[in-house]
Amino acid sequence: MNPRSARSGTLRLTALVAAATLVLGACGSGGGGDDPGETGSGGTPKPGGSVSIGLEAETAGWQPGKDSYAESGASVHYAIYDPLLMLDKDGEPKPFLAESVSKSADLKEWTIKLRPNIKFHDGTPLTADNQKEAFDTVLKATGARTAGILNGVSMSIVDPLTVKYTLTEPNAAFGDVLTAASGFAFSMANYKAKGTDISANPVGTGPFVFQSWTRDSQLVVKKNPNYWIQGLPYLDEVIFKPIPDEDARLATLQSDGINMMHTLRQSLVKKAKGSAKVDGFVVYDFLGNNSGSNIFNTGKPPFDDKRVRQALVLASDQKLAIDALGGTGMVPESTQLYTPNSPWFSQKAAATYPKQDVNKARSLLAAYVADPTRSDKKPVGTPVSFRYDCPPDPSLVDLSLVYQGMWTAIGARVELRQVEQSVHISEAVGNPPSYTSDYDVKCWRNGGQGDPDGSLFSTFANVTGAASNVTDFTTPKLQELIQRGRTTADIDERKKVYEDISILFNEELPFMLHGGTASIVAAKPYVKNVVDWTFPDRTTKGPAITQSVITVRELWLDR
Questions:
Q1: N or C: which end of the chain has fewer CB within 10 A?
Q2: 183 phi and psi, to 5 degrees?
């Protein structure tokens, strides 16, 4: 039995707050690699113009700490807000809105000095006072999406432009936390003025100023004429258009209805690569530590019993799932949340991921069905039944049918349900104050490019009142490993810790995997700097593309 099954489901996935470090949403798999060469960057930037970007989904709202977001929302957030830190091309958190960051030898104190003379879009200044008030009243508020990851963290003001984060325990990965929602600077004057309307009225320090939002149609941002990085942004306007239908999004790019788009759906990745030259656009791709998956709600029967989770995993053939998603020949099967080229990948952990064994799967499920103490309290002999949720993308419909067939073959009864992505995410996260999830099994995406603690494992921390851990899973051993991983800076020791966590996940199976997730950004050839952005010093490079998140700060049009 899950050791948390008797507890209130108060641990939901803090994820959803961290696009650059953790991405969740509907599942997928992917791969590939066209080299865009100079098409994406070369030449002298030209100011002006408007770019329209097709996004895979709408986002519920735009207030850090309050609202959740996946890749689509992250692209918008990085247009409106600046984070204190960002990951560089090597995956290391470096100062961005912050002028400097320093940490104590014991990893318990992190001091952030803000850059001077920066104003929010409403004209109010970025100060330590603003940051302290935002931290105390918004980011750490009961029910905040960021409350879990900031558990045990307090903030004090050092001087008008300097704040200090004090942690009750060491955390070697705390810098990663400040690259996402917990580190986005937003105007407290605006927050207090807008009240319940704050999710539709974002004010940050970013390169673009929010103008309008027509839900499920478009969100418009205009150039920030007072942006603190001299000369940026180049564009006058960016229009973000949610186009959930994958084929429709590609067709809109082909017909010049948009200038750019992104996707994490393998079927569309393959189509886009096949038609790019004919239809006159360029594909930029990325395959990182992101895997298609299914998550189990271990906080409710029957998935609080490991036998049921094991049965579904052992009944499944990753190759069939990858094929349904269109990733055959592009992506490898997954054995953990890291690809083989990641420094966190473990061959030992890879050997522990369950291989398909239909007979064993059938036996495990039958044992649960025949157990008079079965957790769902149904009569002995009653088949296991549950609902499998996925967004209504055609490739995910195909995926759902594949899993329904494999799970039905071992005796389970599986109801399929299509659900729009923003609802899909909110059902998994749940609502305050209990954050009780409303699902059985969902297709999902797990993983991230940042530090393992910040990108996933801290979301399994055993804290209450936090919007984290959609699986509602934890064990004492997992808690001990999490603490060891975040309280040491020794890289070899940390690698061993995350190897052990990967093995534990492969044994306990709060989620299952079905192949790496390729993501692409496709753009017309006249859209430049798609994969070439820099830090404020204008020389340090950021990562080209991370899980299809589009950085619009330095985009320009060569036409």
A1: C
A2: -110, 0
